[in-house]
Amino acid sequence: MTDAATTDTVTLEVLDRWVRLSDARLTTEADRLTALDSAIGDADHGTNMLRGFTAIVAKLDATPPQTVPEFFKAVGMTLVSKVGGASGSLYGTLFLDMGKNAPAGASMSAAEWAHALSAGVAAVVARGHAQSGDKTMIDAFGPALEALDTALSSGRTLADAAAAAADAAEQGSADTEPLVARKGRASYLGERSVGHVDPGSASTALLLRAFADAAAEEAA
What we know:
The protein is mainly α. It is built from 9 helices and 2 strands, in the order αβααααβαααα.
């Protein structure tokens, strides 16, 4: 059995499992994400995200990163180059800034993971200028970061905290349905964007659930 100290460490193995799980789930969920995007966007979000994560897996297979910052840089650069539109830029920014705020070495603590994720989300906000309530991925990331911080501060394990963050992201995504979009292509629809879940928030929730499951598998 894996000891407690190991299960609260985000290793390169956990990160690798995370993106591979994300790729597998995007294979299953790409059509759903694209359907969400077809209602209020360019109808390509699922396709773009799947292409990006499939390319990430190929990149990791070809050149396995040796440190956490190298991992995040490889993921971020691949997303910027392979994913079109705002999604590539925003998700690429997320991972690149996570790398800039991650410790050198082949692992990081749960607290360091939370710090890197928070810094990555802050960089996305700075780039896209979206806030909570604007009907974007920030409506999933915001509650997720709060849940993650609360769970870790109360002494819960990484796997439990990650699961709480994923739960919060999924609820945050669902809560975008009644909102009026104020950022991105969907904002052009105004009131007509009401009644549709934001596709970026849905992909955010998918990625955070994949991380939670990767962390839980490590702890098993």
